[in-house]
Design goal:
Length: 366
Amino acid sequence: MARTFDKMADSLVHQMEAMAHAHDRQEAILRGMVEGVMLTDFEGRILLANQSLVSLLGLQTDPVGRIYSEVLRIPDLTSAMEDILEGQPRVSAEIRSLGPPLRYLEAHLVRLEGRGPQAGAVAVFHDITERRHIDQMRRDFVANTSHELRTPLAAIKGAAETLLDGALDSPQHARGFVEMIVRQSRRMERLGEDLLSLASLENAEVAPKREAVKARQVVAAVLATAGPLAQQRGIHLEAPEPAQDYSLMADGRQLEQALLNLVDNAIKYNNPGGKVTIAFNALEGQLRLSVRDTGPGIPSEHLPRIFERFYRVDKNRSREQGGTGLGLAIVKHVAQAHGGRVEVESKVGRGSEFRLILPLKSGERS
Ligand code: ADP
């Protein structure tokens, strides 16, 4: 008898230890999950909720022990839970958290089978805010792109129709319409090129090209390309000879394009007789390549948004200049792809300064 009791006691101790282990493991898993997890009984009383659930849903108090609909006042979630507790095996729903911050969540609910009071529900919540945000950006981008393409296309169509309706017979009018067709088709061409540049910059599968590039060489290439435009606009474009040259590991063509976009803007949005200065120096292992203009400047409320695609301060002026609204978005992408950034400082009536800040080639002294 005594031996049997001893054995039973041992086995009980083992079983209790095993249960405690299983419980600890379960706790550890729930704590480590980024997904929110909630378990309820057949009445909808919350038996278990992990920390992620509390933060994802923005709950102020511990929800355990309370009826889910009292704590989570989210109509779509309530109706999904009702379906589950009434017998549906599984339900998925997209819900908004109570916030702030507002989050979009995907909830997967599963009914726990059991008789009467043993039944219940498990709900798992995934944060899909980022995905929703990217989807929205993609939709906006497609809508903006179609709009940007439609505008020059409508102008081309109008000019061609006017020519056909009789303007062709009047040489002095005809020339103006043909020039308009050429101007607008160039704009569409530029838009196509800029869109391709952005697409290839965003294409993570293409490994970025890295070669040793000298800052002076990039500036010289941009001066040569932008020189004629500056001359045509009567803008004084200068790049004082720096005391020292610096090397970067970069895609030379992308850097040239980024700097050219900045210089092109500085010329286009300048005042008659204005000045554009390109300069560079290095500080704490970083190259600072700046483009300063004496143009009208950019009001401060626009500054946080000018690097967004298709964002323009003055729509008409940008269109008149043949702008695509993508130039600065490309600059920002190029800077980020090189582990750097772009900054702007501007004063209305005084001018603007854009700075590309990029890491120097390792071993290069600043
Ligand atoms: P865009 O093709 O219209 O020039 P960008 O992306 O290059 O597009 O620039 C976005 C907007 O920022 C421009 O439309 C213009 O309003 C403003 N901007 C850019 N650079 C300058 C500058 N140097 N001076 C004043 N405004 C500028």
